Prior knowledge:
Blueprint: E1 5-11, E2 15-21, E3 27-33, H1 43-55, E4 71-78, H2 80-87, E5 93-98, H3 104-107, E6 127-133, E7 136-139, E8 152-154, E9 160-165, H4 169-181, E10 186-190, H5 199-211, E11 215-218, H6 219-222, H7 228-254, E12 264-268, E13 274-276, H8 288-301, E14 310-315, E15 320-325, E16 331-332, E17 335-337, E18 340-342, E19 346-347, E20 350-352, E21 358-363, E22 366-373, H9 391-397, H10 420-439, H11 451-474, E23 485-489, H12 493-504, E24 508-511, H13 518-525, E25 528-539, H14 542-565, E26 573-583, E27 590-596, H15 604-608, H16 611-623, E28 632-643, E29 664-670, E30 673-681, E31 690-692, E32 695-698, E33 703-706, E34 711-714, E35 720-723, H17 739-763, H18 767-770, E36 775-780, E37 786-790, H19 799-811, E38 820-823, E39 835-842, E40 852-859, E41 888-892, E42 895-896, H20 898-906, H21 920-948, H22 950-983, E43 987-993, E44 999-1007, E45 1012-1016, H23 1032-1047, E46 1061-1064, H24 1080-1098
Helix pairs in contact: 2-7, 4-5, 8-13, 9-10, 9-11, 11-12, 11-17, 17-21, 17-22, 19-23, 21-22, 23-24
Amino acid sequence: MNDKFCFAIDRGGTFTDVFAVCPGGKIKVLKLLSDDPANYEDAPREGIRRVLSEVSSQNYDPGKPIGTSELDWIRMGTTVATNALLERKGERIALVISAGFKDALHIGNQSRPKIFSLEINCPDDLYEEIVEIEERIVLQQDQCQIKKSCPVLIGTTGENIEVWTPLNEEKLRNDLKKILDKGIKSLAVVLMHSYLFPDHEMYIGKIAKDMGFHHVSLSSEVMPMVRMVPRGHTACVDAYLTPCIKRYVENFSAGFQNKLEGVNVLFMQSDGGLTPMSLFCGSRAILSGPAGGVVGYSKTTYNKISNLPVIGFDMGGTSTDVSRYDGHYDHVYDTTVAGVSVQAPQLDINTVAAGGGSMLFFRSGLLVVGPESAGAHPGPVCYRKGGPLTVTDANLCLGRLQPDFFPKIFGETEDLPLDKAATLKAFEKLTNEINNFNSAQVDVKKETLSVEEVAYGFIKVANEAMCRPIRALTQGKGFDTSQHILACFGGAGSQHACAIAKILGISSIFIHKYAGILSAFGMALADVVSEVQESCAKIYSPENFEYLDERIKNLTCKCQENLQNQGFQEQDISIEVFLNMRYERTDCALMCTAVSSAATEPKFIQENCDFLKSFTDRYQREFGFCIPDRPILVDDIRIRGIGNQHFDFSQNVKIADGPPKVKTVTRCYFEEGYADTNIYTLDDLCYGHEIAGPAIIIDTNCTILVEPYCVASVTKDGSIFIKVGDANEHKTLSLELDMIHLSIFSHRFMSIAEQMGKILQRTSVSTNIKERLDFSCALFGPDGGLVSNAPHIPVHLGAMQEAVQFQLKYLGDNIHNGDVILSNHPCAGGSHLPDLTVITPVFYGEFKKPVFFVACRGHHADIGGLTPGSMPPHSTSLLQEGATFVSFKLVKDGAFQEEEVIEMLKAPANLPGCSGTRNLRDNLSDLRAQVAANQKGITLVNELIKEYGLDVVQSYMAYIQQNAELAVRDMLKQIGKSTLRKSGTTFLTAFDHMDDGTVINLKIEINIDEGSAIFDFTGTGYEVYGNCNTPRAVTLSAIIYCLRCMVGHDVPLNQGCLAPVKVLIPKGCILCPSDTAAVVGGNVLTSQRVVDVIFKAFQTCAAS
């Protein structure tokens, strides 16, 4: 390798980073624009040419193919696949799917990324045409009462397969010819149960290739896992993107002599492993670039500085990526990118829409950062192209970015420095707006804020937004966030590193000397990976160990053979064995690993590995409980073969023989005001230099801010290690409202509800909760008032508050630590009976009464009643719709009341024509999951109280509620004025009818001066004999949902939204029925009609 050039290249959306190892070991680093058609055709190829021209003695003309005699290897990551998916510029494809399922991928799941948007745009399907294949394979089940005389085959898992409908080849060929005639040459094939019976897909693939299709992606090959919809989406992504990647690879190779023959060219995959150019495919390419960064910090930080696990913090222009490494890469197998579900191994990288280009807003007393971004064009104000204020402007305003050390590439002529004057002028305007707002408010600090205080406030809000995904990645999985090292890379991360670390209690930061191009550097260090996977469907028990060992050995041999064919010796190959395991009758599978170089041993599991302990330990850590005596299933066996390269590109810098050289001194603004800040350049620093904050270290590709009380030291290879001072100390907050901390607490409260939701979704059993996402989690104050609600289901928004407040009135002082309350009755704030609400009080310290409440509501698949599913279309009384719980202690003194809750779930069987719950085990599992979600909320609330103090947390709880109230009042004032101007009155009216003619009548009276309104439903029809009656709590949810939609931007979802509204609902009407009225239809049908009427009154949008 020493006598040839080696290149690692990350082709990003804006810049392409090049890391080159030249003959003799000299390192060259280069950054150039990814798209610059006036000067070159392809950025990675141009980067290679420039390095060769500069270092080599040979001549490399820009217009000629590059010679390859001096090239050893090229490694690349690229956003080609990601950009094609985002911009919908992939290959034209058709979908081939089992007959009867043509709309399955279009329907997808019920994820609702923007539930408050009044204009929902569904992502375009990747496929243009659909071919329904006449074939049907069914998994044989003993309990199935449909008896057919049909062939029985054995699937890859050993399970019996019934061929109900054989493949209709004649129709298939006719349909495929029609697709070819339309010019479509790429196919995605997804058939029912193909993950365990791939024969039909393979046959279709062969026919399609013979007919002239250029590319065919079979779901059974792309990702042979259960769940047809994500498997189908993944096959579509592969068919859509792989031809694009192949074209790019061909164009890249065409710029070299002999098309790179003899050069080892590898591409980075989403899972953090390299693969040969010929095997690089679309479904594994989506995180190609970011994966390089994860590999980069894992190889340079873990076990180098300490043995603590590492959090990767990659802050870019529009977003921030965070990840975690503890000696093993965390992979996820079901993610959503650009509205498409992808079921393929990817590094677990969480993204938040907060970066250097995130725009800054002031809305109704709240400082807001993003998610909108200024992008590269026009960019921030300081870019001189008329852009908005951004996080970058805030850093410039505070002196943390130095125009003199920034390239002069801005303005229309792209030769001017950053425009600090324009940034300050824009902040002065925003500061005046904020001060004018404050002066008009009650209970707000009256001190006039300076420009710097406002800019610093936005930085703190941005930092808190970026901490949310880090908490989700650590606390959400049972890890202590403070027990990590923070590894920063990317262009903007080093400016925020110290502040992020202080917030999270992290005491150490590592910034590699190649942090500005760490993704490219990571690719240079990465290993080559070969993976194989197959379905299993066996119980993890001793009688199946021999089978598992045989399959592991077989798959391991395949991986080893693949890597040996690429030139790796046996001693350089390591094997990771994964079993995808879950409890029987649950849907939460965990990919559990055991690392061994001896996976070919005949008794690998019996003698080497305890996968059971690996599974139960992780389940306990992530979810807080295990399910003893429940069989554990192995869904899949996955083998990851790693060809270890053992590269080390570290080069020691000079040892310091004196103090570090100060380039200049500037003034920077911090928590305590302005401070003299020394500026250093990284190139001038030597091993052993220590720099006490505040200081700025300038590198070619990033700016490192060392905050006060922090100390930076230079490592042997010239990287920066920062020891964070005051890591666990917080400035004492007064109980007075501080607008900056109002925004911070808004993030913290919402984060609690969101993490509860993630636990509930992952630990639940039922499809309703896990895939339909029919659940909500929320935090409530000591009075039962809603503080924050993760927006999952609109109909739960206001109803859960009614449920908690009912229990406070009903139980009084009979609420104790260790109690968990179950409720679903409409009179107790319920929506309809399948929605079971689990409420847990939060106690703190010596306080005798709850200081908060946490609750979650989830739709259970069945709780008894007239019909399976507990949604009878013909019910006429509440008891016919299933088990009822007014106020039942599901957990009492810490003990789960299993016998008692089983008795109540079976109680509907005592009614004529009714049954008790038909799915008891799932009920119990989902209830336990709800308890676990609440427990997570309690832990997070207690941590917040410990951090700031109970008085402060409860004070800001009230302020957050007041802020939501203010946002709604502002909106009502605007609507009232507009209505008065148009019609001369502030009264709004609307009505509509149910299908049976029952009227829903609404009159709204707006008080412009107060920003309040009366919602009067007088005149609404009486309670009906059927089940379209709607509990009062559901009507309140409809109102709060509509108000939030009409506000038009993010506001905290809490009881403050309803504070300006007085709701009048006559008792006995369809919106406030008697306690025994049937309501199952009203929750889903009448609630929608209420929303229609409200929007009609405000003339917001047409009825749905």
